[in-house]
Write a structure and sequence with these properties.
single chain, alpha+beta, Beta-lactamase, two-stranded antiparallel sheet, 11 helices, Beta-lactam/transpept-like, Beta-lactamase-like_AB/R, Beta-lactam-related, signal, hydrolase activity
Length: 352
């Protein structure tokens, strides 16, 4: 009996390993085919299934480089930063620093003076699920002012002017994607913990998970990719500033898989916080939203995902808690269609 059980365990181990290898080969084939058709776009992909990690990458760090992109190459993860911020918000709830139903009024810096129509109206969860109704930053105007560093013109004074001049909430309770909302969440975290956002994310995510290639203020490293706009022109990485919590973290496939591993583990602090963010906080005929997460559900699967686009790079992160897998796709060109098409193809032909 003991021999039979041992033999069965070995068979299961071999079967699981073969299944994982089969998935990784299929994903690699899809990524390789895409690169052969689009050789100017470098790609790095990390995948985790049942705690086993797989990576594939194609392309060079930049068009002049001979160095191959790999799992350690640094990209802008852009708005994927928002799920790190929402995880920190959920951790603050677990730490009894805030409640998701708290109004934002008492958590904002003193320079903010909310109009009477806005007082005791906007909850922290409203900001995190993009339904606060607040006006947002005008990126079109910012790009005109500085095409390489558009967010450089966003300051704390800019933010307070936008908020303090707001007298009515537009479509409060309806989904409208908001960069300013996640910028405010960063400031709420700072008030809750008495530290700046950089210190908070390092203490509660980066250091505990040993994500040594997840960068904030200093990203002048040798393994950094070059970003390219849709026309192929070089695009600078965004410098760190007050909008950091909405989209300025830099990372790589290896570190983001480490993060996914923690998210999928219900016993970790980050995993417990992630489950808070996965609750549905907004729903209409087009979408379901958690805190910073899009939720996609069919008869057999619930998938949590978040995309990110800087001026020169595109990315997407996605995971299925029930089936215990997650994936990160990083491109060194701003190309939202390509990153979405890759995820759709991988999901439809491999993961389902």
């Amino acid at each position: 009996m003991k021999t039979s059980l041992t033999f069965s365990a070995v068979l299961l181990l071999i079967s699981t390993f073969s299944f994982g290898q089969d998935i990784s080969k299929k994903i690699d084939s899809i990524i390789k085919d895409n690169y052969q058709k689009n050789p100017d776009v470098g790609i790095s992909v990390g995948f985790i299934k049942n705690n086993e990690e797989y990576y594939t990458a194609y392309g060079k760090l930049n068009k002049e480089s001979q160095i191959d992109i790999n799992k350690n190459s640094i990209f802008e993860i852009a708005s994927i930063t928002k799920i790190l911020t929402s995880n920190l918000i959920a951790q603050a709830v677990i730490d009894n620093k805030i409640n998701l139903d708290d109004y934002i009024d008492n958590y904002l810096p003193s320079a903010y003076v909310l109009h009477e129509n806005l007082k005791n109206k906007i909850k922290i969860s409203d900001l995190a699920s993009h339904q606060s109704g607040l006006p947002d930053i005008d990126f079109g105007k910012l790009i005109e002012l500085n095409p390489q560093q558009p967010v450089s013109n966003v300051t704390e004074e800019t933010l307070t002017t936008i908020i303090n001049n707001c007298t009515e909430l537009k479509d409060y309770g309806k989904y409208r994607y908001s960069t300013i909302g996640y910028t405010l969440l960063g400031q709420i975290l700072e008030k809750a913990y008495g530290k700046n956002y950089d210190e908070i994310i390092r203490k509660k995510i980066v250091k505990p998970l040993q994500m040594t290639n997840t960068l904030t203020k200093d990203f002048n490293v040798k393994n950094r990719t070059t970003g390219y706009n849709p026309n192929g022109g070089i695009q600078e990485f965004f410098n760190w500033n007050v909008t950091a919590s909405a989209g300025l973290v830099k990372s790589n496939a290896s570190d983001m898989v480490t993060y996914l591993k923690a998210v999928l583990n219900k016993e970790t602090t980050i995993g417990k916080a992630a489950m808070v963010t996965e609750k549905i906080f907004y729903k209409d005929e087009k979408r379901e939203m958690g805190l910073g997460l899009n939720i996609s559900t069919d008869d057999q699967n619930t998938i949590y995902l978040k995309s990110g686009d800087s001026m020169g790079q595109s990315s997407i992160i996605c995971y299925n808690r029930t089936k215990n897998w997650g994936i990160i796709i990083l491109l060194n060109q701003r190309n939202s269609k390509m990153r979405q098409d890759l995820l759709n193809k991988i999901n439809d032909t491999v993961l389902k």
